[in-house]
Model the fold of this input.
Amino acid sequence: LVGGRIDDLALRDYRETQDPNSPQVTLLSPAGAPDAYYGEFGWVAAQGVAIKLPGPDTVWTPTPGALTPTTPLTLVWDNGEGLRFVRTVRVDENYLFTIDERVENQTGAAVTLYPYGLVSRSGTPHTLGYYILHEGAYGVFDGKLKEVHYSDMKDAKSGVIEVNSTGGWIGFTDKYWMVAAIPDQKDSYKARFAHALSGKTDKYQVDILGGGQPLAQGQAIES
Done:
């Protein structure tokens, strides 16, 4: 519940080797863990605007019940300043998470928020290097596939490659598994492939940022 991220995920029907007693495949791990790999989503404000928003340390309050393919889970957080955030999480049998975000405004004034989603991973994964197999960051933008190697992200000017699109998705792929952020296919957004160093550790991130959504006093917006 801290952060509301998708960040601790093992695939119980898949094993690391053909031995049925070998460990389950661990796909996602939280920040601070070795090879951290997680998905995050939410809202940001315009640059220079101070609004208390959910972040990686936010403690969400869940509704009763467990998240299953037939029962969604709702998380709620109030910023104490008039904004109430409601996050509904759904998951299907193929590990597709659907996140519905709602913000209710009782601040007494209008605000503008921008929806975002990201996938972050720490450390440069070992890749097989097969020319027929892309392992790295990639996405589909305006119907066109774009493949970005980890070395491309390291070499990018200012550590960022930007793309504008309507629909599509962005993520990372390994030999067997993909983790991607998929916006509403009608929405326009800015996508980024980003690299930074944290000490001696390479940090890779792909993210999407939607357009500003005005939120009047007494109203709600959804994403």
Remarks:
- The helical segments are 150-155.
- The mean pLDDT is 95.
- The two ends are 20 Å apart (CA to CA).
- Residues 68 and 91 are 7 Å apart (CA to CA).
